[in-house]
Amino acid sequence: MLGKFYSRVKAGNFTFLVNILLYLVAVILALPLFFLLSPHLPVINIPLGAGIHLEHLLFSILVVGLSIYVVIRLKHLVLIMLGVGLVSIVVSSANGGYGFQGAFQDYVVTLYNLQNNPVAVPLMAEDYEPFQDAKKVADAVNLLNPEVRNFAVKVGTKHFGEFVDKENRNLIQSFSVFKEINNNWVYVSDPAGEEYFASAKETIDQQRIDGKFNGDCDDHAILMAACLKFVGSEVRLVRTTHHIYPELKVGSKDQLDMATFLIRHKLFVKESKKKSIYYHVDQNGVIWLNFDYTGRAPGGKFLQEDIVGILEF
């Protein structure tokens, strides 16, 4: 008799744990859906304090409730999929691949970016006219200069070292270059009626005088392109009718999500607060993040959008 009672208790405990697991899965699934749809809710002007509004509270209860209902109704399928997923992650992690930490990080990044969607600026014609002064600009970048390389490596490792890991090293070092150059840039116009392209080395030499980088938009773009290339990034220069600015190649949407998370949550928290992150998508679906001198965080608003030429290195 005691054995039957013990078996029932064990069965009850097992059922209880399974239900808790299913509820947890339901909440995990509900959160992305809530953040994705909540910006489109009609506003009910009854604030509840602490930044909570009535429409968000009601919608969150609805989404979580529906998610729990669906998960419970499909619990056998959910448990099978959950088991397969856990086994896959365990095996992958044991082989040095994708593990629980990576899965958790990706989930957090997804939630964060659903709340802070970056802005894709519509682009792009498949063909542009030849980049004006392309040879002069490319020569000024000068990717064979050891002094420029040494400077780039130095500023690429100057900031954010505590956040560097194997997966995001290149991206974070590119952000370090951005911070060092943009935080110390002072705009100075070219001589009236002339177009002067300062080489990356020239701007670096000048910076040693007073600790500031001085020049106009093309001087900034040239220095940024050189430094980004020397830390292993891909970069291009975009010419509009009256402006030149650099863009960092981010790549895919997943990589953009990671970049956005790092900008907003780790590296440029104050600078990016309440600001959108702007990027272009080229005709091949590749994402390019704005690295202009006008922003204090990567992905600042485009100064001009009437693009007439693009120079890739």
Highlighted features:
elongated, single chain, 12% strand, 54% helix, alpha/beta, 2 domains
The topology string of helices and strands comes to HHHHEHHHEHEHEEHHEEE
Write down the domain tally: 2
Tell me the distance between the termini: 80 Å
| Name of the level-1 CATH class of the largest domain | Alpha Beta
Largest sheet, in brief, is: 6 strands, mixed
Question: Which strand order spans the largest sheet, edge to edge or round the barrel?
Answer: 1-6-7-5-4-8
Task: Give an account of the 3D structure.
By secondary structure, this protein is an alpha/beta fold. The protein folds into 2 domains: 2-115, no CATH class; 121-312, C8orf32 fold (Roll), CATH 3.10.620. Helix content is 54%, strand content 12%. The chain contains 11 helices and 8 strands. It has helices at residues 2-37, 54-73, 75-94, 100-115, 134-141, 146-156, 169-182, 200-210, 217-230, 253-267, 269-272, and strands at residues 119-121, 185-187, 213-215, 235-240, 244-251, 278-281, 287-290, 307-312. It has a 6-stranded mixed beta sheet with strand order 1-6-7-5-4-8. It has a two-stranded parallel sheet with strand order 2-3. A hairpin with a 5-residue loop joins strand 6 (278-281) and strand 7 (287-290). Helix 1 (2-37) packs across helix 2 and helix 4 (100-115) crosses helix 10 (253-267). It is elongated, with a radius of gyration of 25 Å. The termini are far apart. The model has no long low-confidence stretch (mean pLDDT 84).
